[in-house]
Amino acid sequence: MDYQPIPTVKNASPFDASQDAQVLRAAMKGFGTDEQEIIDILAGRSNQQRQAIKGIYEAEFERDLVDDLKDELGGKFEDVIVGLMMPPVEYLCKQLHAAMAGIGTEEATLVEILCTKSNEEMAQIVAAYEERYQRPLAEQMCSETSGFFRRLLTLIVTGVRDGLTTPVNPDEAKEQAAQLYSAGEAKLGTDEEVFNRIMSHASFPQLRLVFEEYKELSGQTIEQAIKHEMSDELHEAMMAIVECVQSPAAFFANRLYKAMNGAGTDDATLIRIIVSRSEIDLETIKQEFERIYNRTLHSAVVAETSGDYKRALTALLGTA
């Protein structure tokens, strides 16, 4: 099944960066702030267009647009707007860095960002991370994780996965499925190294074939095998790869549901997914969310958020 990513945010047309810069300046000048104007413009433009507005704003007013926004806004609403102003790869780098800063590590954030990327996307993140933080991502990650989980993420970050231009190989898929079976269900204990190698090296289209062959061979799905054979962070990482191979939209829909389910809201995850997927496949994620949970993503977000924060998120969902 070919994945059809549909974004909610596209290039605005017509687009006048100078006019947008003027409106943003007026919205923040003097007493009070016109938050709705800020939402209408920034949530209604692509990232490329936001960068153009930022450049013109600085040239015309000799002020930094992001600094002005930070001065005028606050809380989770500020997090959304400042996130929108960052180039997408830099935004993910900032999220990775925050997940590893301070005491403890947010493994789920590392999994969400690293295990869902193609090799081409991973290479961009690795380069941008080192440029931004003057430290290789793999090095920092190694100091924050351990065991087979660390090994898997290191393999992914160092770029061993086959590129999207690598043709799929049905014969190799049969062999890889057999290796996974031998490393897990067919023996006492688990050879995690084999799982790590195949899950980190094969491209997503190749893994799709491997998982089909695995079911043919063992009578079980790869998810059932991982559930039996793995635990903790390694289990989460493996399941993220499997879900993204089968349907990235379903993976992110599930993450959004978990962020809003139960007591309290995981706002960081909610913001990160809506901001980072808005120009990729947020429309597809909305469709999957409704299919899986029988309610709209819009209704879930509205129930969990309020004020300008809610208005910014629903604008990005295209349902404001």
Q: Any key phrases for this structure?
A:
single chain, 320 residues, 20 helices
Percent range for helical residues? over 70%
Quick one: overall form? Answer: elongated
Give start-end ranges of low-pLDDT stretches.
none
Percent in strands: under 5%
Biggest pleated sheet: none
Write a structural description.
The protein is mainly α and 320 residues long. 71% of the residues lie in helices and 0% in strands. It is built from 20 helices and no strands. Helix 6 crosses helix 8. It is elongated and about 70 Å long.
Any chance you could write out the topology, listing elements then pairs?
Layout: H1 17-28, H2 35-42, H3 47-61, H4 65-72, H5 75-85, H6 88-100, H7 107-114, H8 119-133, H9 137-144, H10 147-157, H11 170-183, H12 192-201, H13 204-218, H14 222-229, H15 232-246, H16 248-260, H17 267-277, H18 282-293, H19 297-304, H20 307-317
Helix pairs in contact: 1-2, 1-3, 2-20, 5-17, 5-20, 6-7, 6-8, 7-15, 9-10, 10-12, 11-12, 11-13, 13-15, 14-15, 15-16, 16-17, 16-18, 19-20
